[in-house]
Specification:
The protein is of the alpha+beta class. It has six helices and eleven strands. β6 and β7 form a beta hairpin. It is globular.
């Protein structure tokens, strides 16, 4: 079971179709594995359809907005009690497999710093302003200490990593920004592979690695 999820506002943006393609991909990958969040999105989709049928002049009050959030939470709690086995057996092909194939380790990784390898796949999303990258942290390896010049949305595709916020396992979802300064460590016996969408490059904060900032894209 996943421990780190998209917040309700992000799921609302996804349901409304307001997210960029790479951000929506991160959400879809999480939803494929998280019944809790799937239930939230189903509720949002249903509520959105009802609101679309209402009169254009009708204003949505703050009380109604709070009621929507409360209903989403209640539905998610109920769905968390049971997972449909039929959904598992009939699961469609992952959008990640369609994009990259089913063997992440065989991709043309480029060693970046120490235990970190990267693969920039921004060109798979024409017209997008954000940088979209796969990052691989070798099993037991440490990433350089860094913060973020903008916002970074990340989903774990394989393995797990840990930082001061906790342990992030496969299909966990996290959003980081300028306030987060961390040094991820790959935990477990396999490489940790993540998919990240960055609005701006990371900023290295270690004593010696800061000299490499001009070369980090």
């Amino acid at each position: 079971m996943n421990s780190h999820h998209p917040d309700t506002i992000t799921l609302m943006e996804f349901s409304a179709g307001n997210l960029s393609e790479p951000h929506a991909l991160c959400i879809r990958l999480h939803l494929d594995q998280c019944a809790d969040c799937r239930s939230r999105v189903d509720t949002l989709d249903s509520l959105g359809a009802v609101m679309m049928e209402s009169q254009p002049q009708t204003e949505v009050s703050s009380d109604m907005f709070d009621s929507i959030l409360s209903r989403i939470d209640n539905d998610a709690d109920e769905s968390g009690q049971q997972v449909s086995t039929a959904a598992k057996s009939n699961r469609r092909v992952s959008p990640l497999v369609k994009l990259l194939g089913d063997d992440l380790d065989s991709l043309p990784w480029k060693r970046q710093l120490g235990d970190v390898s990267v693969l920039d796949i921004t060109d798979r999303f024409p017209g997008q302003r954000e940088q979209v990258v796969l990052q691989k942290l070798a099993a037991g390896g440490k990433a350089p200490s860094h913060t973020h010049r903008g916002e970074e949305t990340t989903i774990v595709l394989q393995g797990a990593f840990a930082d001061q916020k906790g342990v992030f396992n496969q299909w966990d979802f996290v959003v980081l920004n300028q306030e987060d300064d961390h040094k991820p460590v790959a935990v477990g016996c396999e490489d940790c592979i993540t998919l990240s969408v960055l609005s701006a490059p990371v900023k290295l904060t270690g004593t010696f690695s800061r000299m490499l900032n001009p070369f980090i894209r």
